[in-house]
Specification:
about 170 residues; mainly beta; about 10% helix; elongated
Length: about 170
């Protein structure tokens, strides 16, 4: 085999390794999968937040519903105090939902807890809004939550007002 053939073979092998990402090994992005979907996730201290987003009804401007699951992994009970939102996007929403140890607190879907959010006209479906999830014993968790319409996979989510009363659809 000539030197030229060896050089070409070495170039082809190294190109194949680089383009197939085999050289990255176990730190390859495809081996570090995260949960897919529109909801956002976060872990801070002993609190885990999964699938968090805000669902709005275009027929009811000014209102949204927090959707997501909060899990307390601490040895003692905590309390979800509420959701802070930038004034340009809405009004903070309070709740005093106990978070038992290792029991998910689910919000937004039928049969789950309700946390209504008063929103400004700036908030449109598809936008991300900055919020803080506040807890009694844990530090606040900053998140950028996606705003979605209540159609498609979110069509069964009912938008409520701040008193927790159902806002009827027209």
């Amino acid at each position: 085999m000539s030197r030229q053939s060896i050089k070409i073979a070495a170039l082809l092998v190294s190109s194949a390794l680089l383009t197939s990402a085999c050289a990255i090994g176990f730190n390859a992005g495809t081996s570090q999968q995260k949960a897919s979907g529109n909801g956002r996730s976060a872990d801070t201290g002993s609190i885990q937040v999964r699938g968090a987003l805000i669902v709005v009804d275009p027929k009811k401007p000014g209102w949204g519903t927090f959707v997501g699951t909060i899990i307390n992994t601490a040895a003692e009970q905590d309390k979800f105090i509420g959701l802070e939102i930038e004034p340009a996007n809405g009004t903070p929403s309070q709740t005093n939902e106990p978070l038992k140890t290792q029991e998910p607190a689910e919000f937004g879907l039928p049969g789950q807890k309700v946390l209504p959010i008063q929103l400004t006209s700036n908030v449109k479906p598809g936008s991300l809004i900055k919020v803080l999830l506040d807890f009694q014993n844990n530090v606040a968790i900053p998140m950028n939550l996606l705003v979605e319409n209540n159609d498609g996979i979110y069509s069964d989510i009912v938008v409520h007002n701040l008193d927790g009363e159902h806002i009827p659809f027209r």
